[in-house]
């Protein structure tokens, strides 16, 4: 089984935009859910794109399960990310004007995709996520973020995402020349808080 390309949109039409924000929902969520969050971000002149996962899940098991257990869903989900970026690029938006916001499973997918395809992007906010796999395969991660700002927000503890993986992800992204800001909230729970939205605005959309 694989995902079917299904991109929901908000903001200004893609063919009229100079900047795009790609928003990636979590397990059990939807493209519409995550798009509604864009109202709280300073993206009034952006096209906003949100791919929809088949059955509301990008891959079946935990992001720290052995990778082959999450196939072929994971490879298909990474392909969807590539297709969503391509939609923006084909509309004339430069990669350095493409931004990303992912939550939970969507944050993991976003970070995995970007670490495999690093270049200068506009910026990245990943709330409660890290790169994917039971072990980190550093050989998968190539490219240079060339100073792309990245905000990683998480709770400690978090039932789904160990804080150690968030720190390990931050270190990998820094090695690849991303400008990483991380913020760990004690016992906040598995959700997005107001300060994370404010930090996303100040780091990415200032």
TrEMBL record:
InterPro entries: AB_hydrolase_fold, LYPA1-2/EST-like, PLipase/COase/thioEstase. Residues 17-199 form the Phospholipase/carboxylesterase/thioesterase domain. The keyword Hydrolase applies. Keywords: Hydrolase. It holds the Pfam family Abhydrolase_2. Gene3D superfamilies: alpha/beta hydrolase. Belongs to the AB hydrolase superfamily. AB hydrolase 2 family. This is Phospholipase/carboxylesterase. The lineage of its organism: Bacteria, Pseudomonadati, Bacteroidota, Flavobacteriia, Flavobacteriales.
